[in-house]
Design goal:
Strand order of the largest sheet: 1-4-5-8
Helix content: 40-55%
Number of strands: 8
Catalytic activity: dibenzothiophene + FMNH2 + O2 = dibenzothiophene 5-oxide + FMN + H2O + H(+); dibenzothiophene 5-oxide + FMNH2 + O2 = dibenzothiophene 5,5-dioxide + FMN + H2O + H(+); dibenzothiophene + 2 FMNH2 + 2 O2 = dibenzothiophene 5,5-dioxide + 2 FMN + 2 H2O + 2 H(+)
GO cellular component, one term: cytoplasm
Structural class: alpha+beta
CATH superfamily of the largest domain: Butyryl-CoA Dehydrogenase, subunit A, domain 3
Domain Acyl-CoA dehydrogenase C-terminal: 250-386
CATH topology of the largest domain: Butyryl-CoA Dehydrogenase, subunit A, domain 3
Number of helices: 11
Order of helices and strands: HHHHHHEEEEEEEEHHHHH
Number of domains: 3
Radius of gyration: 22 Å
CATH architecture of the largest domain: Up-down Bundle
Domain Acyl-CoA dehydrogenase/oxidase N-terminal: 36-104
Subcellular location: Cytoplasm
CATH class of the largest domain: Mainly Alpha
C-alpha cells in the first residue's frame, strides 16, 4: 500500500473549483422532491421506517453530486449553498441530511484531493449517484486514541476487519468511509463497497430522536477493499470537523423551521379556546402570536448563523488551492471556530424554539398522533453530538489565550472508566 504525502498547495489553474451557482435554480431542482419527502415524514416517524425511497429520489436527482465541479458533471455548489439545501431538506425530514452527512464529508475530502485520475474516478461515482456512508466510531473497551478496526493484506489484496457504531447513513450507501489502522500502525480511510458478504449493516440505533438516520452497527469481516481506495488519513481535508458540524447545524435549523410550520398550522386550525384567553380564536390571540413570533425570530437567527458559519469552510476549501500555506492555515482555523460559534448559538436557539412553541397550544400538543414532540427530540439529539460544553471552552480558550482549536478529536475509554484494573483493549 502506497503512502500519500501531506496535502500540498495547488494552483487553482490545475483544479476546477466549486465556487457556487444560481441557488434558486439549483434548489428548484430538488424542491418537488423535498415536498414529497415532507409528505411521508410523519408516517415514517410513527412507524420508524427507514427512508430508503426518499434516499433513492435524491440519489436519482443528483443530490449527492451538488458539490462536484460543473466541469465533472456536478452542480458546482458552494459550501454555503450546500448548507442552505440541507436546511430545506431538513425542514422536510431532519433525518435525511444527517443520513447523508458522511457522504458529503467524503465528497469534500475528494474535492480537496490532488487532481488526477484517482480523484476523477470518485467524481464520476458521485455524479452517477453513488453514495458514501460513515463508519468511524468504535464502542466498548477501545482506548481513546486507539483504533481496533484493521486494514491488512490478504493474498494479493486488502481486507478490513472490525466493528463500528454510529455508522450514520451506511445502511443506504454504496460505499462506507471507514476509519481504520493499517499493518504499519498508520491511520487510514478505507472506502469499502457495501455489496459484499463481508459487510453487515444493522439499524440498531436506539436514540429517542433522529430515529431514521440509519445510524447503527456495521461489522466488517474480511471485507475487501482496493488498494487505491485506502487513503492516508493525514491527507484528510483539514476543515473536516467544521463541515461535519455544519451538516448538524443544518439539521437543527431545518428542525426549527419544521416545528414552526407545524405549530403555526395547529394554531391556525385550532377551534377550542380558553375562557381566560385573549381572543375568540387561538390564531387571533396576541399572546399566542407572540410565542410563535419569538420562536420564528430564533429560527431566523439560527439559520443566519448557520449560513454565516459555512462561508469560512468555503474559504478554507478555496485556500487549499491558493498556493499560500499561511492563508490556508488561517482559513482552517476560522472554519473550525465559526462552526463552533454556530454550534453553541444555534443549539440554544432551536432548542428554546422547539420547547416554547408548546406554549402556543393546549394539552393537544402532546398528542402522539401529531408527533409534535419529534421536533424537540430531533433537535435535542442533533445538539447532543460533539458536546457543546467542550466547544464553548475551546472558543473561550481561543478568545482569551489564542489557543488553536483541535481539528480532529476522538472518543474512547479513559483511565476513569476502568474498573477492577481491567486493561483497555489494545
Amino acid at each position: 500500500m502506497t503512502a500519500s504525502n501531506h496535502l500540498k498547495s495547488i494552483s487553482t489553474s490545475d483544479a476546477p473549483l466549486s465556487r457556487g451557482t444560481d441557488y434558486e435554480r439549483l434548489a428548484d431542482r430538488f424542491r418537488p422532491i423535498f415536498a414529497r419527502i415532507a409528505d411521508g415524514a410523519l408516517e415514517r416517524e410513527r412507524s420508524r421506517s427507514l427512508p430508503y425511497e426518499p434516499i433513492e429520489w435524491l440519489r436519482n436527482a443528483g443530490f449527492g453530486a451538488v458539490r462536484v465541479p460543473v466541469e465533472y458533471g456536478g452542480a458546482g455548489a458552494s459550501v454555503p449553498q450546500l448548507i442552505q439545501l440541507l436546511i430545506e431538506l431538513a425542514e422536510a425530514d431532519s433525518n435525511l441530511p444527517q443520513a447523508l452527512r458522511g457522504h458529503f464529508a467524503f465528497v469534500e475530502d475528494r474535492l480537496n484531493a490532488d487532481p488526477g485520475a484517482a480523484r476523477d474516478v470518485w467524481f464520476k461515482r458521485f455524479v452517477a449517484g453513488e453514495l458514501v456512508g460513515n463508519a468511524w466510531t468504535e464502542v466498548g473497551g477501545v482506548a481513546i486514541g486507539d483504533v481496533i478496526t484493521r486494514v491488512s493484506r490478504s493474498g494479493d489484496g486488502w481486507v478490513v476487519n472490525g466493528s463500528k457504531y454510529y455508522s450514520t447513513g451506511s445502511i443506504f450507501a454504496d460505499w462506507i468511509d471507514v476509519f481504520a489502522r493499517d499493518e504499519n500502525g498508520r491511520d487510514v480511510i478505507a472506502a469499502v463497497r457495501t455489496n459484499q458478504p463481508g459487510v453487515k449493516r444493522s439499524d440498531d440505533w436506539d436514540g429517542f430522536g433522529q430515529r431514521t438516520t440509519g445510524s447503527g452497527t456495521t461489522v466488517f469481516t474480511a471485507a475487501r477493499v482496493e488498494e487505491e481506495d485506502i487513503i492516508d488519513f493525514s491527507t484528510r481535508f483539514k476543515y473536516q470537523t467544521a463541515l461535519y458540524q455544519l451538516v448538524l447545524l443544518s439539521v437543527l435549523v431545518g428542525t426549527g423551521r419544521a416545528a414552526l410550520r407545524d405549530f403555526a398550522r395547529e394554531v391556525r386550525t385550532r377551534k377550542r379556546i380558553y375562557s381566560h384567553g385573549n381572543a375568540p380564536s387561538f390564531a387571533q390571540d396576541p399572546q399566542v402570536q407572540q410565542v410563535v413570533g419569538e420562536a420564528a425570530a430564533r429560527v431566523f437567527a439560527a439559520e443566519a448563523a448557520a449560513v454565516r458559519a459555512s462561508h469560512a469552510s468555503q474559504r478554507a476549501y478555496e485556500a487549499r488551492f491558493g498556493g499560500d500555506a499561511q492563508a490556508e492555515h488561517q482559513a482552517n482555523v476560522e472554519a473550525e471556530l465559526d462552526s463552533a460559534f454556530g454550534q453553541v448559538a444555534i443549539a440554544d436557539l432551536v432548542l428554546r424554539a422547539t420547547t416554547d412553541l408548546f406554549n402556543a397550544l393546549g394539552a393537544s400538543a402532546a398528542s402522539e398522533s401529531k408527533a409534535l414532540d419529534r421536533h424537540w427530540r430531533n433537535a435535542r439529539t442533533a445538539a447532543s453530538h460533539n458536546p457543546l460544553i467542550f466547544k464553548s471552552r475551546i472558543i473561550g480558550d481561543w478568545k482569551i489565550n489564542g489557543t488553536e482549536p483541535p481539528y480532529v478529536w476522538q472518543i474512547g475509554a479513559g483511565p476513569a472508566n476502568l474498573t477492577d484494573k481491567t486493561p483497555v483493549a489494545a
